[in-house]
């Protein structure tokens, strides 16, 4: 008989509805059926704009220390960053990705069977540490009263090859699932590289070249088809023919924009999960933001957070527990009886959490 496996999970609700969907996810995890032989311990951690206002740090040193020394994985809620410069403030989620070595942001977007509109089943693999998100900006005054803002866009061969390899690994894994009978709209694997090298020939040219090189790193990638799309053309095709894409790999900014756009095709950001993945750690987070307009009202959609937990478990090797969560969530959504307002329903966060928990064992 196999022994129970212990997982120490850091919980970082952060801001806004993160304080509602992360506790809902904890309740879901605590109700996973015992057949999965998983035991979870939880470490509550602080980060975010509210933490910055209280302490002067958006990412306290103790949070980072406990993640590195005590936790196997983490779940992040949402961050409410100001739209203007605030001295001393920097996004904690961006900092966590860099300091924890989480170089890949993986965002699956899949429509439910029988849903209206064009079917889609794709994964956006976004480089997580570079591009314009290095946050190296400056303001210069060229002549008195005339300001110019500048930003560094950094693309390295090392990071681009790593994210390219991750994309091919995910394509290979998805094809293995199809071969074992998992339902899919795709018959064969495809990796699509996103760039704008017709304009930014140096930075995007290096990203394109490095991702193409990644295919040569393993004989197992040889059977995976590869193509590429200019980013503006990709936006057009994503909305016109989303069913054509399997695994999409992109630099940081393009991946961020494309994944939010893809979310609109299945109805709500409240449905889309993500995982920040490194070589030895995974931190999952729902794609949606802090949603201050509904924070505290008890109507936030926890589905993206539940799916993020499943994605985290999948990357940790607990595929059966992950599949249990995905199936339970899909069952509740397909029934259409218990839905939060963003999906046209009137249910609360707690009501949809109760329904998914009930479906775990059915």
From TrEMBL:
Names of the cofactor(s):
Mg(2+)
Q: Which GO terms describe its molecular function?
A: homoisocitrate dehydrogenase activity; isocitrate dehydrogenase (NAD+) activity; magnesium ion binding; NAD binding
Q: Does the keyword Transferase apply?
A: no
PROSITE patterns in the cross-refs: IDH_IMDH
Alphabetical GO CC annotations of the entry are:
mitochondrion
Q: What is its EC number?
A: 1.1.1.87
Keyword annotations:
Amino-acid biosynthesis, Lysine biosynthesis, Magnesium, Metal-binding, NAD, Oxidoreductase, Phosphoprotein
Pathway(s) per entry? Amino-acid biosynthesis; L-lysine biosynthesis via AAA pathway; L-alpha-aminoadipate from 2-oxoglutarate: step 4/5
Q: Which reaction does it catalyse?
A: (2R,3S)-homoisocitrate + NAD(+) = 2-oxoadipate + CO2 + NADH
**Under which name does UniProt file this protein?**
homoisocitrate dehydrogenase
């Amino acid at each position: 008989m196999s022994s129970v496996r212990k997982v120490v999970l850091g919980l970082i609700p952060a801001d806004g509805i993160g304080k509602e969907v992360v506790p809902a996810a904890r309740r879901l995890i605590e109700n996973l059926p015992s057949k999965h032989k998983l035991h979870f311990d939880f470490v509550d951690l602080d980060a975010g704009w509210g933490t910055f206002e209280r302490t002067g740090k958006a990412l306290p040193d103790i949070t980072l220390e406990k993640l590195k020394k005590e936790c196997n994985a983490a779940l992040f809620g949402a961050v409410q960053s100001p739209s203007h410069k605030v001295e001393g403030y920097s996004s904690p989620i961006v900092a966590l990705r860099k300091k924890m070595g989480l170089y890949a942001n993986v965002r699956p977007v899949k429509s439910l069977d029988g849903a209206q509109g064009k079917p889609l089943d794709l994964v956006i693999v976004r480089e997580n540490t570079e591009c314009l998100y290095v946050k190296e900006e400056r303001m210069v005054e060229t002549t008195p009263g005339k300001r110019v803002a500048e930003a560094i866009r950094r693309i390295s061969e090392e990071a681009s090859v790593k994210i390219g390899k991750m994309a091919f690994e995910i394509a290979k894994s998805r094809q293995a699932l199809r071969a074992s009978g998992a339902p899919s709209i795709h018959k064969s694997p495809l990796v699509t590289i996103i760039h704008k090298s017709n304009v930014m020939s140096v930075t995007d040219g290096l990203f394109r070249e490095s991702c193409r090189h990644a295919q040569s790193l393993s004989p197992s990638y040889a059977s995976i088809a590869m193509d590429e799309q200019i980013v503006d053309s990709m936006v057009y095709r994503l909305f016109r023919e989303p069913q054509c894409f399997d695994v999409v790999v992109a630099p940081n900014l393009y991946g961020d924009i494309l994944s939010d756009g893809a979310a609109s095709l299945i109805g709500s950001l409240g449905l889309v999960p993500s995982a920040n993945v490194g070589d030895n750690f995974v931190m999952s987070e729902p794609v949606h933001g802090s949603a201050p307009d509904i924070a505290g009202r008890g109507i936030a959609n926890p589905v993206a957070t539940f799916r993020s937990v499943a994605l985290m478990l999948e990357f940790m090797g607990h595929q059966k527990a992950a599949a249990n969560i995905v199936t339970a969530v899909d069952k509740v959504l397909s029934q259409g009886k218990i839905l939060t307002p963003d999906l046209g329903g009137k249910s609360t966060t707690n009501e949809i959490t109760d329904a998914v928990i009930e479906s775990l064992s059915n």
